[in-house]
Specification:
The protein has a single domain, classed as Multidrug-efflux Transporter Regulator, Chain: A, Domain 2 (Orthogonal Bundle), CATH 1.10.1660. The chain is mostly helical. It is built from four helices and three strands. The chain starts with 7 loop residues before the first strand and ends with a helix.
């Protein structure tokens, strides 16, 4: 059981991250965030790492970064993780 990570639905994840449910849904819509898991019924669930990502998005946005720049930054980070295309 120690290996199982806690998963939160949208509302609970938003509350833990300190944002509104609508903000979290917007981050999903514009590609800033991906759910950790999607159930067979389409329910989106988030782990603590996703909640931390939402907190980071909020902090960067409050410090003046537009959401588009944050998304571009995250996309660059993901591209570096994947390595060069073959």
């Amino acid at each position: 059981m120690a290996d199982e990570k806690q998963l939160y639905p949208v509302g609970q994840a938003a509350k833990k991250a300190g944002v509104s449910r609508q903000s979290l849904q917007y981050y999903l819509m514009v590609g800033l965030l991906e759910p950790t898991e999607v159930t067979a019924t389409g329910r989106r669930l988030f782990d603590d790492a996703a909640v931390d990502t939402v907190r980071l998005i909020r902090k960067l946005n409050k410090s003046g970064y537009p959401l588009r720049a944050i998304r571009d930054l995250f996309m660059q980070k993901d591209a570096k993780k994947k390595g060069p295309a073959k």
